[in-house]
């Protein structure tokens, strides 16, 4: 009986994780594509020395995202750790997080009327490290220097 | 060589390629593939553990088995006359079948079910229902000899060792940190009452009982009373034979009848 209960809750969590996870992922990518097109004019590069004219000032801009893995993907990753190989289920998650972080950075740059962000850097850190039975969450932070031009 | 100053700065962010950093793969497909692989490996391991421990357990000394059973067995000591008679019967069978060095204790269970089983530490359980249903001595002796055969073949300890192995393996696989749980099971009554002998073990015990009955009585007329009574009571097997731990009653009876011919 207890085994059945555990199995049922596992299956329920897997199904919920999959349904909500893939729904959220599809919707997020749609939004990423739209906003990437919208902010295309805000150029983000990781070059350190700008070669722009008429620069009035610079300012730090940041975009930060915290994401959590869903149950389904975490289970898949657990299985993956047994045999090795690419963790596809996490790759799309991190791809979304990095792109979202850049988009937020671009949003901040736009508020400053800047169209150039130099010296882009990423920081990625786990914020649920060492907690065995918790679903893992990470933060992706993108930061750079926005040039404010005349 | 171009210097860093020669190129035109970007006027627009490039469109990102979609399939490089996050390749489009079906994660459901990946899940099936991975879980099937992991499950198959686990099952293979479990079968290997089951078979090897079952084989190794026959070398466990009888005294160890007795010591294992001692804490639980103490609660069964009763001295009813019927039990004493049955004990005497078993002792005689042991002497006459040349296994007199085997120490066996018999217990009567108050249950109307038709059942008898052998378990760890040379313990045999017979239900009251079975005792009243079997009228002939040969019929009863066949059942007792069948259970003695399990003890002679060390089936209880072999089944227990196999089960313990698989329990430990499962505990390891699911990351259960308390490995004491499977080992505590060794001390439990659940273990004593679980008699998952394989079909091969049952058939072997039938053959042993039959041979011994021939040796003790010469004529085995009436040996099949237990099977016949079971079948009369409508012991229809609910599961196909390969799913059941016990072979079908009809099959066992037919086998022994063929042997008699």
TrEMBL record, chain A:
Transmembrane segments: none annotated. InterPro entries: UPF0145_dom_sf (IPR035439), UPF0145_YbjQ-like (IPR002765). It comes from the Bacteria. Belongs to the UPF0145 family. PANTHER family: UPF0145 PROTEIN SCO3412 (PTHR34068:SF2), UPF0145 PROTEIN YBJQ (PTHR34068). This is YbjQ family protein.
Automatic annotation (TrEMBL), chain B:
Keywords: Hydrolase, Membrane, Metal-binding, Metalloprotease, Protease, Transmembrane, Transmembrane helix, Zinc. GO terms for molecular function: metal ion binding; metalloendopeptidase activity. One of its GO terms (cellular component) is membrane. Binds 1 zinc ion per subunit. Gene3D superfamilies: Metalloproteases ('zincins'), catalytic domain. The chain crosses the membrane at residues 31-57. Residues 82-259 form the Peptidase M48 domain. Its cofactor is Zn(2+). The keyword Transferase does not apply. The keyword Transmembrane applies. Pfam families: Peptidase_M48. GO terms for biological process: proteolysis involved in protein catabolic process. Belongs to the peptidase M48 family. This is Putative peptidase. It comes from Reinekea blandensis MED297.
